[in-house]
Write a structure and sequence with these properties.
It comes from Paraglomus brasilianum. Keywords: Secreted. The protein contains 10 helices and 14 strands. It has about 425 residues and is α+β, with helices and mostly antiparallel strands. The chain folds into 3 domains: about 110 residues, Ubiquitin-like (UB roll), CATH 3.10.20; about 70 residues, Roll (Ubiquitin-like (UB roll)); about 210 residues, no CATH class. A 5-stranded mixed sheet has the order 2-1-5-3-4, with helices on one face. Strands 10, 11, 12, 13 and 14 form a 5-stranded mixed sheet that branches. The longest helix has 23 residues.
């Protein structure tokens, strides 16, 4: 009488079971031959009589039962016995009936053969002197092929390749260059690593050496040899609500500070350092709203020619962008632990501009510039303008405290003073 047995090779999931049709009057040895023909790939080079079969009853889909299954001699199907001796009644549906186990040596040999093939493939790759490397240059994300002879390659060659591929102003001969390569990548290890990431840092030459046209070229803002500030997209800098009693007290104190400085150091006669003192009053007042979260730490003064406000934007842009990568390790970039944007203020205490620098989807820096707020210190409406500047500063501080989004860890605010 014909019988259909569901068989499963030991080590596989129940979903990989296969059906075998055979007459129940035949011997188990005949069943082994039928199973070998049915599943030839699993039993290549294995004689049918070397297969071991066990009678089991495992519900299809219950893979958890396979791990705890205990095989013993009583359940083994012997080659000289008839199939009907093991299944005298109707077979349960949707069950595995036969568990097939190939010889241990055969299973090991199959895995050994796979490993040998992998080793052979690696040897073929490493026997070549010329290799194709996938080079990812940050802040760009797309990998590019660098074909090179590893017996002759040097880090200088890699820099030249990047310079020719991207032509970044940061790697021009007139600027300092810093091409960072992960520590585990060196010429000696090129044989074992076919993909690596290179980081190009912002040039380290003095901020004062950067002109506005050069900065526009550096960051792809404009190719115009004489660009104006309108090349910057507008930054819609918000303004905080300063109508609370606490806000009014801060404004009153700020106005007193400004008037005191007007009396002892008139702004029209002030030098760069004195103008910074005026600017500091605004910042200190803004930070006072969130003194537990922010500290105001003066770091540096960017000096610019009095007639060249454009120079201030140039220097501020380079300094803001350099803040994005400078404060993080290379591995932190891939983990999303980076600053998502930097706010900057360019001012001579009278003209106030607010800037934003952020990274786009390709991790390239983008800049935005606000409309100016002009403070005339002898004007009768002085307080109105002072409140407007303070409102923008407090808004920036509020933005810096917003919940983390998309893995962003922090934001940064910097002040760039310009005379």
């Amino acid at each position: 009488m014909p019988i259909t047995l569901f068989c499963l090779v030991k080590g596989n999931r129940t979903a990989n079971a296969f059906a075998v049709e055979i007459d129940s009057g035949k011997l188990i040895s005949h069943l082994k031959e039928t199973i070998k023909k049915k599943d030839q790939n699993d039993f290549v080079g294995i004689d049918a009589h070397k297969l071991k079969l066990w009678k089991v009853e495992i519900l299809s889909g219950r893979d958890d039962l396979l791990s705890s299954l205990s095989l013993n001699d009583n359940d083994e199907l012997l080659g000289a016995n008839e199939i009907s001796e093991y299944w005298t009644s109707k077979l349960p549906k949707k069950h595995i009936h036969v568990l097939v186990k190939p010889p241990e040596t055969a299973a090991a040999s199959s895995r050994e053969q796979e490993l040998l093939e992998e080793v052979t493939s690696l040897k073929e790759k490493l026997s070549k002197s010329t290799h194709d490397f996938d080079v990812v240059v940050k802040p760009k994300q797309k990998a590019n092929k660098w074909t090179v002879n590893i017996e002759q390659a040097s880090l200088k060659d890699l820099k030249n390749y990047i310079r020719e591929l991207y032509k970044p102003p940061a790697l021009e001969n007139d600027g300092a260059e810093r091409c960072l390569i992960p520590r585990d990548v060196a010429v000696a290890s090129f044989k074992t690593k076919l993909k690596f990431t290179v980081f190009i840092e912002t040039p380290s030459k003095p901020f004062s050496d950067w002109s506005f046209p050069k900065v526009c070229q550096l960051y792809g803002i404009s190719s115009d040899p004489n660009p104006d500030i309108d090349v910057f997209p507008p930054f819609l800098c918000g303004s905080a609500d300063l109508n609370s009693d606490n806000s009014k007290a801060v404004i009153k104190h700020l106005m007193a500070e400004i008037k005191l400085r007007q009396n002892v150091t008139p702004l029209n006669k002030a030098n760069e350092a004195a103008k910074t003192i005026y600017s500091y009053c605004y910042l200190a007042s803004g930070v006072s709203f969130y003194k537990d979260n922010f500290k105001l730490i003066p770091e540096k003064l960017i000096e610019v020619k009095r007639e060249d406000f454009m120079k201030g934007f140039a220097q501020a842009s380079v300094q803001m962008e350099s803040t994005l990568p400078r404060k993080r390790k290379a591995e932190e970039i891939d983990n999303g632990q980076d600053v998502d944007r930097v706010f900057g203020i360019v001012t001579d205490a009278s003209e106030w501009y607010f800037m934003e620098c952020s990274l786009d989807n390709e991790r390239k820096p983008t800049f935005k510039l606000s409309e100016p707020v002009t403070v005339v210190y002898k004007d009768e409406n002085l307080q109105v303008k002072v409140e407007k500047v303070l409102g923008h500063i407090v808004w920036l501080l509020e933005e810096a405290q917003k919940p983390v989004e998309s893995g962003v860890k922090s934001r940064k605010i910097e002040l760039m003073s310009k005379a």
